[in-house]
Amino acid sequence: GLIFQVTSLQGVAVRSLSTSSPHDHPEHGRLVYKGNLAKTVLGVKFFSYSTSIFNLFMMPYIMLKSGIGVESLLVQAAFYGLIGVFTFVTPVTLHILTKGYVIRLYYKDEVDTYTAITYNAILAEKATVFHQKDVKIPDITKMFTTFYAKTKSMLVNPTLFPNPQDYNHLMGYDKSSFFKFEELEEVKQAD
């Protein structure tokens, strides 16, 4: 309890004292968003990949030891199928679901461009640069998509933006709400 709190407070103090964080990239602009599941996504993907590699190496050994090669073709096919699902389908599915998970988002005010950092298939960080006008919001709420940057689906958690205005600008809400407000005024005047 207490010891942990003290050390975490020290960590916060040290972090705020050091001028540059490891995520400072002036070439990308200012950091406007940090995904809190970045480590989890990386961990789950890494675990999935390592399990798949382990399965690939273990398959011939399991077959030799279990004598499954002697069994009927049906049992063999079922066994291969099951191992295959865990070896290939799981990592691919995980990648499809998490490839748009934004780890960090930077914004350059002067050019109105964003740089989204995501993980690629080999767990390396990948930067996608897009303009605010490239942002499209899906018509129906999609499970792993908050918005599209050009054609790429991106997933962010709106509550994790330290400044809500940054989220509103990203989504283009600051433009549309302005018109809505004006329309409201006109309606009031008409009444």
From TrEMBL:
Entries under Pfam families matching the protein: TMEM70
One GO process term, biological-process aspect: mitochondrial proton-transporting ATP synthase complex assembly
Transmembrane portions of the chain: 46-64, 76-98
Domain of life: Eukaryota
GO CC, alphabetical: mitochondrial membrane
InterPro entries xref list: TMEM70, TMEM70/TMEM186/TMEM223
Alphabetized UniProt keyword annotations: Membrane, Transmembrane, Transmembrane helix
Family note: Belongs to the TMEM70 family.
Protein name as annotated: TMM70 protein
Lineage: Eukaryota, Metazoa, Chordata, Craniata, Vertebrata
